[in-house]
Amino acid sequence: MSAAPETSRAWPIVSLVILVILGAINLFVLFFFVPDFEQMYHYTLHGRQLPGITLFIMAARIPLAFIALAWSISGIVTVWKRHRAAIWIVNLGLLFFFALVWVTTVALLMPRVVFIAGMSDTSLTSPTASQ
Description:
The chain has helices spanning about 5-45, 50-60, 60-80, 85-125, 125-130. The chain is mainly alpha-helical and about 130 residues long. The protein has one domain. The radius of gyration is 21 Å and the shape is elongated.
């Protein structure tokens, strides 16, 4: 039993809309939030080493943004031309974008968690605590 033609045509379009929205969110985060966090960490951590994942996201934000933009465009083109692989391209893009949002969020927040944990560790060993 196969789906009605309008139903089978609707799923790639719905997935494409979600792909484009996630792509726009990724581009916004990579171009506006990552530089702000980079500047904030530069001034607040005073030369402390950032986690590797944070350094990667900060260094690779332009290539990642290019991939996000290219994937959205390829999804639009394949759905527009009704290519057989359109739903696969769009759904793989969705997986990529969800993973990128998750990794970027972890990468940007990890130094804050490590820094706050480090502050609480130093308060336990302060001279007033040992008296």
